[in-house]
Amino acid sequence: MALKADEVSISQMFEAYIAEYHHRDILQLIAADGDDSHQPVVINAMTLFEANMEIGDYFNDYPNDVLNIFDKVLEKTAKELAKKATVKHLDGLCPRVKNTLHARITGLPVCPELTRDTIPRSRDVGHFLSVTGTVIRASVAKVLAYERDYMCTKCRHVFVLQADFEQFYSFVSPVVCPNPDACNSCKFSCLSGGSEPAACKDYQEIKIQEQVQRLSVGSIPRSMVVVLEDDLVDTCKSGDDVTVYGVMCQRWKPFYNGSRCDVELVLKANNIEVNNQQGAASLLIEDVQKEFEEFWEHYKNDPIAGRNQILLSLCPQVYGMYVIKLAVAMVLAGGVQRIDSSGTKTRGSSPPRPLCG
């Protein structure tokens, strides 16, 4: 791979960037108490690319490999800082190094090649993008095994096999034994089992949909699956407006004889930002209340006309159908919140009301 020869130079450039811009952030993560094994270090892409344009070129061409290099540099830097801090703590209470630090990219340059308001297509596979959308579904967080130890039954060579993301994290055995001595065996046994668990990580899938207000009239919003791992799990919920930074990938189910290959596009998230404007909404409450009072003051002598005016604005492209629109408006405005046994809040049914002419 072309990137392999330049891995050392990329590591050195990113290490210098970390020392200048994120030295204090890493110290705070080291000193912080907590059981979280995965911690984010937010990297502003604009600042990084301005500091070193060469990193930007590598990042655009090999995003997955460069992100792995970033994580290794962060972990190495954290260990070195922890060693220095250990010398200063003579009482034995030294800062604890987190198991894994992740470089979370944000602030991509605003351009059609990197930032999207619409769902990317197949031509974007392999590119690092920023996609804005609304979360319409979030799966339950799971524990995913992503590494297993295998042993060659012929030469007893032990090797680590990583799950293949493109095949839904299934473990695909190598064709021949990876032993440098080349025993050419094709039979292996799994050592990760029983009382010795495999390497695992948190895993979750969400589905995001294009925001209707950003589409042209008549367009049907499309959706796509986003994969969240480690500290990104449970960072958003259904209904949130989010900006997801990640690498466009394609994946398919393992091949079986006689089965058809179905390929789907997914976004493997590196960072996710929730854009809910709750603060701005609270500032608009007074204006909305004033507008509401003025509206009904105008129709205080004829509330049915006020109701009909509201129905006119409901699906304005559909002519007539006042009774149906009234039923829809009652469902949207009515209903009582319910909380089920698991604590999940759901919308209750609207109580029956007579339909006024």
Can you describe what's shown?
This protein has 357 residues and is an alpha+beta fold. The chain folds into 3 domains: 4-107, mini-chromosome maintenance (MCM) complex, chain A, domain 1; 111-276, OB fold (Dihydrolipoamide Acetyltransferase, E2P) (Beta Barrel), CATH 2.40.50; 280-347, no CATH class. 30% of the residues lie in helices and 26% in strands. The chain is built from 9 helices and 13 strands. It has helices at 7-21, 23-31, 45-51, 53-61, 63-88, 278-283, 285-298, 303-312, 322-333; strands at residues 38-44, 100-106, 115-116, 128-138, 142-152, 158-162, 188-190, 199-209, 223-229, 241-252, 263-274, 337-339, 345-347. The strands form 3 sheets. A 5-stranded mixed barrel has the order 4-8-9-11-10. Strand 5 (142-152) and strand 6 form a beta hairpin. Helix 1 packs across helix 5, helix 3 crosses helix 4 and helix 4 (53-61) packs across helix 5. The longest helix has 26 residues, at 63-88. It is globular and about 90 Å long. Mean pLDDT is 80; it is low at 90-94.
* Distance N to C terminus: 73 Å
CATH superfamily of the largest domain: Nucleic acid-binding proteins
Task: Enumerate how many helices there are, as a single number.
Answer: 9
If strands are numbered along the chain, what order do they take across the biggest sheet? 4-8-9-11-10
Main sheet: strands, sense, barrel: 5 strands, mixed, barrel
Report mean pLDDT, rounded to a whole number.
Answer: 80
Q: Indicate the structural class.
A: alpha+beta
